[in-house]
Amino acid sequence: MNNSTIFRLFLFFLLSALPGLQASAQEQTLAGVVTDADGRPLAGVTVIEKGTTNGVSTAADGRYLLRLQKSPATIVFSYIGYESAERALIAGQTELSITLKSAEIAMDDVVVVGYGTVRRSTLTSSVASVKSRDFVEGAVTSPLQLLQGRVAGLAINTTSGDPNNSGVQVMLRGVSTLTGSQEPLIVIDGISGGNLSNISVDDIESIDILKDGSAAAIYGTRGTNGVILITTKKGSESGGGVSVDYHGYASVETISNRIDVFSAEEYRNLGETTNGFFTPTDKGASTDWGDEVFRNAFSHTHHLAIKSGNAQSNYYASVDYRSRDGIIKNTGQERTNIKFGFNRSLFNNKVTLSGTLNDVFTVGHTVSTGDVLFATLVTNPTEPIYTPTGDYSIFIDSTNPVKLINEYNNTSRWNELQASGKVTYTPIEPLTFTLLGGYRYFGNIDGSYATRKFDTNYDGQAWRSSSMNQTKTLEFYGQYAERWNKHDFSVLGGYSYNDYLTDGFNMYNYDFPTDILGENIIGTGMALKDGFASMGGYKNMNRLISFFGRANYSYDDRYLFSASLRYEGSSKFGANHKWGLFYAASGAWRISKERFMKEVRWIDDLKLRVGYGVTGSEPSTPYLSHLKYSFGSPVLIDGKYVYTIAPQMNANPDLRWEEKHELSVGLDFSMFDYRLSGSVDFYNRTTDGLLYEYNVPVPPNLAATTLANVGVVSNTGVEVMLNGGIVRTENVRFDLTGNFSYNTNKMKRLSNEMYQRDFLELGSTGAPVQKTTHIVREGGRIGDFYGWKSIGMTENGSWIVEGGEYGDNASRQVIGNGIPTMHAALTANLQVKNFDLSVTLRGSFDFQILNQYRMLWENFARGADHNFPRSILYNKYNQYVSTAPAYVSYYVEDGDFVKIDNITLGYTFRFQDKRNPIRSLRLYVSGLNLYTFTRYQGVDPEVNFNGLTPGIDYVSGYPTTRTFTFGVKLGF
Amino acid sequence: MKKLICLILAGAFVQSSCTNLDEVVYDQLTAEEYFANFTEEDIPAALGTIYSDLRSLYAGWNAHTEGCWLFTNEESADGWVTPSRGGAWYDGGIYQRLNSHTWNIDDAHMLGNWRKAYTGINTCNRLMYEFESANIEADTKEKLMAELHVARAFWYYVLCDMFGNVPLVTKYDVPDGWLPETSPRKDIFDFVVKELQDYRGLLTEKGYGRWDYYAATMLLAKMYLNAEAWVGKSYWQEVVDLCDEIINSKKYSLDNDYKQIFVTENENSPEIILACCNDEVFDSGEPFLIHLWTHHWNYRYHHDTETFFWGGCCATPDLANSYDPDDTRFEDSWVEGPLYDNTGELTGVPGSPILCDPKDPKDMGLPLVYTRDVPIYNPGKPEMMTGEGCGVRMNKYEVKKKAKSQLSNDFVLFRYADVLFMKAEALWRKNGKTADATIVGLINDVRRRAFTEFTSDKMLQVGELDDERFLDEYAWEFCQEGYRRQVLIRFGVFTTRQWFQHDGTGEDDHLNLFPIPRDELLANEKLQQNEGYPRL
Q1: For B196-241, how does the pLDDT look when each residue is reduced to its tens digit (9 = 90+)?
Q2: Packed helices B467-478 and B416-430: angle between N→C axes, nearest 10 degrees
Q3: Of residues B483, B533, B499, the one with CA closest to residue B161
């Protein structure tokens, strides 16, 4: 950087920092035409003089005329669906025509990569970005649902419709742990550890996902599952005065799919239907148990945001209120978010201060939801809800569903505060120091009460608990960038400190004088006096400290290199492995910048990327590595009960992180004038040192198992993303975006010299089948169902299984796998004049689901006093099943599905007249989880795919829902 | 400005000691904290672990599936069986394999018993090591050490009984990476005898629920009684002498009422020599659940309890049918007959008969009746199923009204009646398996309380006492107490006797010991498998 640049910059900051000085400058006008990439004029484009409130809109022919207030002025052009453009005028310039790039084909979006941003064109690894304009409009529970179907390789499952627990599961590039979490690291505005369900979707500006190991390695021991970086909305820099935005929507939710069980009438006729095979027990009533507990649930959300300011000082403030009922009666949640953020530049922009504050208050109500769906399915439909004496009817294998929703209730209140402050200091232009401090506090208080009617054994039972956890973050980093001729060079170095604390207690009491006051008078339960009340408490901490650095070099924007290092330690690790080094290197070659590509005009951009990165994952709980004494059960010694004390666990000073090595290769391309763009990625990731419990001899060890780093698993996959601008005319735009991913994993090792395991048999079919469902073994895949392959039925209704007899362990085989190997999604956006329509399809393929409900209940052996699925009449082998329920492949169904995830139809009013107080208005209707194409017979094929026992549909969760939404977006 | 930032940072680095990764442990004690503050007041809490370990012989939420001394030693013998019923209690066949002697090295019961014993041994070794260096008065220390030695000897007695050839570990502070090797059964036997001889005299004379002098004496007598079966050497006179020592002390006597030994508040029974203490308030973590194992889930409505039941194990028909009709011990030990909804909660009408649920169609419409017969619904199938109500249920340990899942009845490990039986058996064997008046008298002393009128036809006669009768006498008196397998092995019929689905033909003697579990062989390659079992 030469002296004149520094001088110009100095002058620029000086002038822009002192807007008042130019007020008297001589009036000047600027005129021009704004067009799109195809040369068509754009009407309604906002043209604003930066740092002022001075602005106009373009006319139908794309022309504008602006009276300038400053000199020299900078002009900002912005228009929905297009990249904003900013142009500095030279003194005396009176004309400026410009072409706006359509937003989605703009290759040079800024991408957040952790401790900084880069231009997409210079990225050397796979980072996916989703901007707020691409978010699904509708009643999503978790911001993760905004990413559903948007990012290849990031599989997201919505497994529940619970308003208090979205049940959203995430898996990035397969399973790379045995016992650890599969959740990606969430970083909100630079602060890690936040809870995504506690931020308002409308406050999010963009979401960036670091997929490659080479990109995530800068996050060290927390990078293995990928990193999701959330950037929230900021104050306005346009200087356009105060703007107010309102977004409100109302939704109706219904159960996504009801399993077809017999109605009371059909049940009564089962004797005839089955030609006497089955004799129903008619209890005289007609009850539709589903109707008794499910409902169409209503919810509404209101979001109001105010922002204002200019480049030097600005703020953003918002309030969000959401009230949501659940489809199970008596469940729901109310949530209020408050957010405030500001930026302020001082000392000629040498110093900027910024801060954000986000606080959420939530009240959730729930009932004994876990058993509700199951009870509606298996309870005899001729049973009355109440006995003649007014008590709840009692059933053998299920609890009265109406009792479940009326006689047990839980109220949970929580508050999550997230505050952060940031100071950046730029002593000379290419050198910046950043100091970031963050504090996150989560506190909750929870109470449950079960009445006398819920369990007649007790005169009411009450539970209370309270917990808190907090995170303190301090980060300091410096960045420096330099450019000589065609050489671009930048470095980053920093320090990060994270301190986590968890604290909580709980209590339980029963036998209360009354049910009316519920858990509010928990002290009055007689169980406390009798010694049967219980109490518990816990408190723990852990700390993560790291030093990190990154260097980027590029030559001529053609050859790009990036390398990062993170030296990180965690208090959770054993004494012998306190600190680990995580590194990454990646490079990219922009082939399209080569001279020989100049002739290939149809290719706009072509980039080849290669990266290698090492990341880790921590053990999930602290205090695992060394010897501690804890209190066990009390015993009688010399006539007095004393709590015994002893070490409970083996110390493992070798405990360390699971370490993942990932090699990835990718290709990014844009062609036909950016009408077709996309990327292809291949990766191979191997995770070493997987933590699992291993048997060790006692003595010399204290306990029979030790948590040790032993196993190795590898994941290989490919991801494809494609964006196409299919139609571009003056009034019609049609875009298609699709993605596809394939992943397969292999368990490479389970044992080493010190710790031995042949295989793990895991998962449970539940009673009365009582078998394990899954196997993990060397050479196999995680998620393999291991059971008996049914190939027919004998005359007396017993299963014929391949290679032996049912129940004989030696004749088991792999009969499916619960993890989809393929995910795909397709989004179509159509815009006709002011109407827009978007449709998203999403599917997962090549996996199986153990339909536990069918396995246990598509079976007349369960006895007469039950309801059954209608499928009980249509057995493949033309026989009614009435032998003891069995874990055979007949109940392991293909789970492949395609969903119409979302359809949104909207209309946007465009107001040309500046005097109109309404700046913008948009109305839309949308539907979520509208229809599922699948052969799977359960409620929803989107079942758990995490952990070591994926793909079991227990029919025990909160059923998923279908949502219809009407929304308004209003800007003043 | 730069200076300011530098200052802030310097401050932050120094203040927070920027690379400090020490764990602050809030809810447990670190070893340093624990030992730094150790005083004599901490002894009961530290020592208590050997008694909570002792409770693992029979207690715990999963004791029936993971294996425990009581369940394993009864289920593998002739008096107690757990067939599948009501769609449950198959659990991979572990119970049925125990009962029919087809267990394998993967069965959970092998691992469970092994681990519980070695956990007990490890605790003793650790406490010896910790107490050695702790600041404790010499007298107190001597008594404590003796208690630990005897407690450890007990666990080696259990291992010697069940697994035979096992590693003998007597130290806590072993070098890193050290792994123990298998010692022959003879060495284990000698070790236990030696330890008991050396340390029994240092114990408190009498203390309820503790290893005292007489408990250790009885343990030594049990070692000698089994010596012939275990290591091929007989010590009959030693057994008689040790039993006489207990008898002559006059500290114990037979309870007048057989039932009283096992009631909810049984701690005052004069018959108990060693009990493990149970309490419904304190034991919620590791409860005594024999009533849950055995009773039908709807027994709750019959007996008006707070707890539900699991409905698994029952008496074998062989045992149930062997009692003298006038022997009150049958009724004191087992529940037979129909169940009624005495609370009215199930049917709405108090006193109505309870029907089978039926989780199995064969039980459909049947009244729920505990029967002596245990028919197998699906003979020849790996999963032997029986009806919900079949089999008489364990009732030796009284189940009080309103009982919770955890019973308060103390578990009786050693009792006076057994001393009389041991003496009788030793005399009988010493005498070449010929009875005399003294021998029969000892047994009749115990039999007497079982009959309302102890007429001569109810008395055991000298001429009646043979192996079979001795086994029956043991079964009637000591069923459900955990000793049956040991008794059958001592009488040499563990592999040959017929009961339930155990036909007793063609079985090899190696089954008198359980195999070393696979998981232990995997974890320590120095271990040797018992003869007749596969290495892995």
Answers
A1: 999 999 999 888 999 999 999 999 999 999 999 999 999 999 999 9
A2: 170
A3: B483
Peptide bond into A699 cis (omega under 30): yes
Q: Nearest 10 degrees: CA dihedral of A774, A776, A780, A782?
A: 70
Beta partners for residue A481, in sequence order: A490
Q: Which residue has the higher pLDDT, A911 or A621?
A: A621
- The end-to-end CA distance of chain B, in Å, is 71
DSSP three-state, residue A10: helix
Share the mean pLDDT of chain A: 88
C-beta separation of B482 from B70 below 8 A: yes
In the predicted structure, residue B192 carries a pLDDT above the cut 80: yes
Task: Count CB neighbours of A541 within 10 A.
Answer: 18
Å from B328 to nearest chain A CA? 33
pLDDT of A104 strictly over 60: no
CB contact under 8 A, B118 and A700: no
Decide if pLDDT at A13 tops 60: no
| CA dihedral angle for residue A935, residue A940, residue A944, residue A948, rounded to 10 degrees | -30
Whose CA is closest to A582, among A47, A221, A929, A92? A221
Q: Which residue has the tokens 């260097």?
A: A551
DSSP A623-637: S-SS-EEEEEEEEEE
The span from the CA of A137 to the CA of A901, in Å, is 12
Residue B282 contacts A where some CB pair is shorter than 8 Å: yes
Check residue B12 and give its pLDDT: 53
Query: Which residue of A529, A698, A701 is the best one to mutate when testing the B interface, meaning the one whose CB has the most B CBs within 10 A?
Result: A698
State the angle between helix axes of B437-447 and B416-430 in degrees (0 to 180), rounded to the nearest 10. Answer: 160
Instruction: Point out the residue among B91, B345, B357 whose CB comes nearest to the CB of A770.
Output: B91
Q: How far apart are the first and last CA of chain A?
A: 43
- What's the token pair of residue A966? 């009407």
Is the entire prediction scored with pTM above 0.90? no
Residue A742: closest CA among A153, A151, A150, A128: A153
Please state whether A312 falls in left (phi above 0), alpha (psi between -120 and 50) or beta: alpha
Chain A residue numbers touching B16 (CB-CB < 8 A): 474, 497
**B213-231 helix and B185-199 helix, angle to the nearest 10 degrees:** 160
**Chain A residues close to B22, C-beta within 8 Å:** 571
The string of DSSP letters for A153-169 reads TEEEEE----TT---EE
Nearest to A545 among B19, B51, B281 (CB): B19
Dist CA A204 CA A190 (whole Å)? 14
What string of H, E and C letters represents the secondary structure of A408-441?
EEEEEEEEEEEEEEEEEECCCCCEEEEEEEEEEE
The C-alpha atoms of residue B94 and residue A427 are separated, in whole angstroms, by 74
CB count in 10 Å sphere of residue A311: 18
- Which letter does DSSP use for residue A809 in this model? G
Lowest mean pLDDT among A13-27, A537-551, A844-858: A13-27
What pLDDT sits at residue A539? 96
Beta-carbon contacts of B380 under 8 Å, excluding residues fewer than 6 positions away, are none
Cβ(A382)–Cβ(A280) below 8 Å: yes
Cβ atoms of residues A105 and A675 within 8 Å:
yes
Residue A89 and residue A75: Cα distance in Å, rounded? Answer: 7
Residues in A touching B34 (Cβ below 8 Å) = 629, 645
Please list every residue in chain A whose beta carbon sits closer than 8 Å to the beta carbon of residue B346: 394
Please indicate whether, in this complex, the C-beta atoms of A623 and B25 are within 8 angstroms of each other. yes
Query: Which residue out of A346, A435, A633 would a mutagenesis test of the B interface target, given it has the greatest number of B Cβ atoms within 10 Å?
Result: A633
